[in-house]
Structure formats: structure tokens, C-alpha cells
Write the C-alpha cells for this entry.
Amino acid sequence: MLTHVLEPSPTEFRNFNVCPHCEWIGEEALLFRFSEGMPMISRSDGQNFHLLLADRPLPYPAELGGGPTQTVSVCFWYMYGEEKAATKSAVVLFEPCAHPKEKLYRQIEFIADLLADELLRRRDLAIFYNLQGNAILELSY
């Protein structure tokens, strides 16, 4: 398990539906996701990558009959570079800090900032992370 603290860095484009990265590389720029009922949470530097929340937060684990859980998972789709077929996913587990949706969205925004910073540094993301306070931990599965 790799552990490190990431400080979110500002990305040029935030929470867009028309992707500046896709426009830059000449691809279809309108983004879609599984759950259109959530606010768009997305990040891009305009040229090298985009990252977006793919679906609403889901309980983790999601087994039937498992009972209520305090842990939530969010899935982000991202692409680094110009190869459209290279769209990948990263899942982050976390415990919501509060129940009001506004605070949950802010927490997911913070996760998006951390992942965007990691993507800028490494050009790739791990498949599975766990958020602990302000630290994001890469998990092996």
C-alpha cells in the first residue's frame, strides 16, 4: 500500500459539460455520465487530460443484505493524452463528513482536485484509493 498526502492544485477548467481537452484533441467534447441527476464534477488542464465523476456516490460494499454502511464509493473516468480508447476509471472510498448533500458534493470536489493533481504528476491513476482526512491512499486489491 502506497500512502501519501496530496495537496490539491488548481486546474484551469472545473465542472464543465463540454470538455476543453476533447476539443483540443479534436474529439466529441460533450461529456456524459451514468447519473445525470448529480452536479457535474469534472477537471481538466485544457490540453492533457480530463477527469469526471462517472456516477452518483454509492454505498460500499454494495452487497445485498449487507446492511447499512458508513463508506461510500465514487467512480471517476479520466483520459490522459489523445487516445480516446484510453479512458480509464479510478474508484475512491471515503466516509462522508456530513449528510447534507452540499457537504458531500464539496468532499467529492476535493477528491476530484486530489485526483487531478495526481494525474498531472503521474499521467495515470491507480484503480483504487481510500480518502483518509486530507490524504489519499492508493489501495491494492
Summary: Helices lie at 20-25, 101-122. The two ends are 10 Å apart (CA to CA).
